[in-house]
Amino acid sequence: MTTTPTTAYCYHCGKHHPIEEMRQLATKTGKRWRCIKSIEATKQGRTERDAFGKRVTANNKSESQSKARITLNVAGQ
């Protein structure tokens, strides 16, 4: 029996979102999932797109650093 996933990974922002918040887009490498929020952000002007990208980058960096600290703390014990 195959179960339908309830979330999908957004290749743009690097997070899992509920399927209802996602759209499948055709890219050069095939179909990929992307969240509606990121799709809408690209329809804005350059300033808004750049701001969205910087927020996503900052969030991803923060999460990565947090995971690294946790890993280092666990490994050091």
Radius of gyration: 16 Å
- Decide which structural class fits the backbone: alpha+beta
Helix/strand order = EEEEHH
Mean pLDDT across all amino acids:
86
Q: Which strand order do you get reading across the main beta sheet?
A: 1-2
Our estimate of the beta-strand percent is: 15-25%
> How far from one another are the termini?
42 Å
List keywords for this structure.
77 residues; alpha+beta; two-stranded antiparallel ribbon; two-stranded antiparallel sheet; flat
Structure overview:
A hairpin with a 2-residue loop joins strand 3 (22-27) and strand 4 (30-35). Strands 1-2 form a two-stranded antiparallel sheet. It contains 2 helices and 4 strands, in the order ββββαα. 8% of the residues are buried. With 77 residues, the chain is α+β, with helices and mostly antiparallel strands. It has helices spanning 36-42, 46-75; strands at 7-9, 16-18, 22-27, 30-35.
